[in-house]
Amino acid sequence: MDSDSGQLADLAGEVFEFADLIDYQTGSIVSRTLVNEEAATMTVFALDEGQTISEHSAPHEATLQVLDGTGRVRIEDETYDLEAGEAIVFPANTPHAVEAPSRFKMLLTMVR
Q1: Which of 60, 57, 90 has its CA nearest to residue 73?
Q2: How far is it, in rounded angstroms, from Cα 15 to Cα 50?
Q3: pLDDT tens digits, residue range 27-65?
Q4: Please, which residues have CB within 8 angstroms of residue 16's CB and are 6 or more apart in sequence?
Q5: Which among 24, 26, 52, 74 is least buried, having the fewest CB atoms inside 10 angstroms?
Q6: Sign of torsion over alpha carbons 93, 22, 37, 8
């Protein structure tokens, strides 16, 4: 795997928790791409309290899994509060947004 593909291969043979792969930064959204391949992407995010990922859509389904804290997800007109260990699917071509009422970390996986 080349350096542009992500960092998952660097973790081969290690036991880890996804939440430990990224740190919070005050007033920011931080991300770390683990896989960036033609077939899929995996990215870990840390959102500080009050941060948002504005409404957008993607041409592929994706899953968002909360790793730490509580996140708020809006898919079209429905809002969901998710806690650590919970996940939700973003349907392809459907408007969605993410916000952090408090700090939280998430794993976003998109399969193309």
Answers
A1: 90
A2: 31
A3: 999 999 999 999 999 999 999 999 999 999 999 999 999
A4: none
A5: 26
A6: negative
> How many helices (H) and strands (E) are present in the chain, helices listed first?
0, 8
pLDDT tens for residues 21-34? Answer: 999 999 999 999 99
Q: Which two tokens stand for residue 42?
A: 């995996």
Torsion of CA 80, 101, 84, 96, to 10 degrees: 40
Beta bridge partners of 64: 88, 108
CA atoms within 13 A on the CB side of 67: 20
